[in-house]
Design brief:
This is Vitrin. Residues 67-236 form the VWFA domain. It comes from Myotis myotis. The protein is α/β, with parallel strands linked by helices. It has a single domain, classed as Rossmann fold (3-Layer(aba) Sandwich), CATH 3.40.50. It has helices spanning 9-12, 17-20, 43-51, 53-57, 80-95, 127-136, 146-156, 182-190, 205-211, 216-219, 232-246; strands at residues 66-73, 105-111, 115-119, 166-173, 193-200, 220-223. The chain has a six-stranded mixed sheet, sandwiched between helices. Helix 5 (80-95) packs antiparallel against helix 6 and helix 7 packs parallel to helix 8.
Length: 250
Amino acid sequence: MEGAAEHEKPYVMEPNFASKAVCRTNGFYSISVPSWLSLHKSVQPLVKRVCDTDRLACSKTCFNSADVGFVIDGSSSVGTGHFRTVLQFVANLSREFEISDTDTRIGAVQYTYEQRLEFGFDTYSTKPDILNAIKRVGYWSGGTSTGAAINYALEQLFKESKPNKRKLMILITDGKSYDDIRIPAMAAHHKGVITYAVGIAWAAQDELDVIATHPAKDHAFFVDEFDNLYKLVPKVIQNICTEFNSQPRN
């Protein structure tokens, strides 16, 4: 009220509130009163907000409560044209989520023999920015070290994941890995990263099954051509939501 100091407000709010909430606060949890004389006018708005359970609950769904990290094969066998198709697939999946700094966040890694963080979970917080960032990813070209890419994603991308977020890795590859994928895949599973493996053309089904979280039939996907990737979007989203709905939530 009146001359309340804005800088003191954080001291009377729950610490790290925004990082714990699933929805944005949007001023819902604070009321400004111009003077003591008008304090009585805040009673009804305050009661209404306290009783508005839908907005207080900020319910989690499969669309607003994850950190989704894409691990994208940029090897030579993909080619420039097909790489754009892969990016369109990544964009189509991203569109399905509610994206903000307190809802679902998106990050991406590209790999060949080496790895590159294209953008982290904290880099962009709106859907238009995410889609533009995906569009700007440049094709790298090189070998296929999928195991090293998984390790890199765990260290450089998922280490920034929030404790209240489900960690989803969606790895997309068109070939057999030149390095070991078993130990990195086990590390991802051990760290609670739910891993979806999407294989195209020459990808090895046995490797996809190892990379994918158990059961592999729900987490590993394969298409024989890049142009068929779009068909997987509803299947991947459906499986993400089915798994989310089957898990207990706090």
